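Work Package 4 report. The design task specified in the project plan requires that, given a folded chain encoded as structure tokens, an amino acid be chosen for each position. We show below one input record used in the internal validation round.
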């Protein structure tokens, strides 16, 4: 879809996401420091530059006092961010509860919580009520800052109720909604008690986007089977109102990574890491410490590989960066202990006095350290059980133009559809298959690595976050124009 003639080059865009691209840490009554937030959504949206964008979202911190709120609002304004203040109870019920204990696992095919998981965060109904209340709070802030001609782009599973709230305020608002996770098969979505209300709220948007065609198809099926609406190749139609539904695969700001490799500090890191691991092949995992990332399964596959390949035992090392996330949710706490237990056991089994096979870090790395790590890696392991897209795989590829390392990639990550031809695709549940792919990757000829890398590198550098956002917003503009034209006919 082309741009309309006469449209201003830098359109005002209100990006609404649960989490702002920066998280706030309080240093004093009126003083705050801001740190870049983790996660695929932030990493992609940081690459979007063409718009006059403002972010609206939660700064990841409870600020009960007005003095603190005023100071934080001021600090965030410098970053073009506008905070939504959520109190502890709402965060507990809406974010820990409905978003991360119900929708997140469900959308990743891990099912609805059993009784014991629900009991920890009170009842489903009160969590859903808090979810709607929180979405309304986001809508209030959007409405306060909205100006005619703005485009409002809502993101992710936290804000499925937001399109409806916004249209209730102003039917003419151009509203898009994009999901960064998979949208599951309609049979899975059907199990959700609030299934219809959520679908109807999303359908209030003018444009609904997903990473892959499959997710878009699942969403349309859910609307036809659960709501009895009509699905068309364009989207979903409800009593003459068409909601456009389509796939918009996300990308990264690949230049940012490629340029970083030239920075002296990164070069220095690369030199240090190369010396530190000389004589060993480096395998890398970078994930938020989340059950969808399949970290225990990945480590068990690595153990199986070591078990079956004595030759490699002192010639390979696995570096696993596991960024802590959602640490108040009990499921995530259990996962941390489980991963530590497995890593300890394997290091005890295969380690020596001078070296261990797995270096496991429960923390994030700064951008430059991360780029250096990507650059020295021989084999990256992205073995999510399910993943909307997975941008770590893109970041790795962007940093590999000299080394041409191998990407082992889960067939259940959205990225498998774009990087599948260059990566070794695996079923992460099949530990034997992953172990044998590790062997294949470590033994691959340089010609084959080059060929596979070239395919992926071209994709990652040609399909950027910038292009993703421009395509979505351009289509959103056109969708609204089409809708207006239809009403005039
Ligand atoms: C995923 C979600 C994002 C979320 C990120 C980090 O990428 O799609 O919406 O921001 O995880 O999770 P958190 O709960 O820390 O925001």
């Amino acid at each position: 879809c082309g741009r309309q003639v006469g449209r201003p080059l830098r359109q005002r865009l209100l990006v609404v996401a649960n989490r702002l691209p920066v998280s706030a840490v309080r240093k004093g009554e009126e003083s705050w420091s801001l740190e870049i937030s983790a996660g695929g959504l932030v990493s992609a949206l940081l690459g979007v530059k063409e718009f006059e964008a403002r972010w609206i979202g939660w700064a990841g911190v409870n600020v009960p006092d007005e003095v603190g709120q005023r100071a934080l609002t001021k600090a965030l304004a410098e970053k073009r961010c506008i905070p939504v203040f959520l109190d502890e109870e709402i965060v507990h019920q809406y974010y820990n509860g409905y978003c991360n204990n119900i929708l997140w696992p469900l959308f990743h095919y891990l099912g609805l919580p059993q009784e014991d998981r629900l009991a920890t965060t009170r009842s489903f109904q009160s969590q859903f009520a808090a979810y709607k209340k929180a979405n309304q709070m986001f809508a209030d802030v959007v409405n306060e800052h909205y100006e005619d001609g703005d485009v409002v782009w809502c993101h992710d599973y936290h804000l499925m109720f937001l399109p409806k709230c916004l249209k209730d305020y102003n039917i003419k608002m151009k509203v898009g909604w994009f999901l960064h996770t998979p949208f599951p098969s309609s049979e899975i979505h059907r199990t959700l008690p609030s299934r219809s209300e959520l679908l109807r709220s999303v359908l209030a948007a003018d444009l609904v986007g997903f990473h892959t065609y499959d997710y878009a198809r699942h969403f349309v099926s859910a609307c036809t089977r659960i709501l009895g609406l009509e699905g068309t190749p364009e989207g979903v139609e409800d009593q003459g109102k068409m909601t456009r539904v389509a796939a918009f695969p996300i990308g990264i700001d690949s230049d940012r990574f490629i340029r970083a490799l030239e920075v002296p500090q990164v070069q220095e890191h690369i030199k240090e890491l190369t010396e530190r691991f000389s004589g060993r092949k480096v395998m890398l995992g970078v994930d938020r410490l989340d059950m969808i990332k399949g970290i225990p399964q990945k480590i068990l596959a690595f153990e199986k590989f070591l078990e079956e390949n004595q030759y490699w035992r002192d010639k390979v090392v696995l570096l696993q960066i596991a960024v802590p996330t959602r640490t108040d949710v009990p499921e995530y706490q259990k996962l941390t202990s489980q991963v530590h237990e497995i890593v300890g056991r394997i290091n005890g089994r295969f380690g020596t006095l001078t070296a261990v096979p797995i270096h496991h870090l429960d923390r994030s790395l700064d951008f430059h350290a991360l780029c250096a790590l990507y650059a020295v890696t021989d084999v990256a392991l992205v073995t999510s059980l399910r993943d909307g897209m997975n941008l770590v795989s893109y970041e790795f590829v962007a940093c590999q133009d000299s080394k041409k390392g191998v990407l082992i990639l889960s067939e259940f990550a959205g990225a498998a559809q774009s990087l599948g031809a260059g990566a070794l695709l695996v079923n992460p549940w099949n530990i034997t298959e992953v172990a044998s792919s590790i062997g294949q990757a470590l033994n691959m000829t340089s010609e084959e690595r080059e060929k596979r890398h070239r395919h992926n590198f071209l994709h990652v550098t040609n399909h950027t976050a910038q292009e993703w956002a421009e395509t979505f917003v351009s289509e959103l503009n056109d969708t609204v124009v089409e809708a207006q034209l239809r009403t005039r006919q």
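Residues 19, 38-41, 156, 180-181, 325-326 surround 6-O-phosphono-alpha-D-glucopyranose (CB under 6 Å). Validation will be extended to a larger panel in the next phase.
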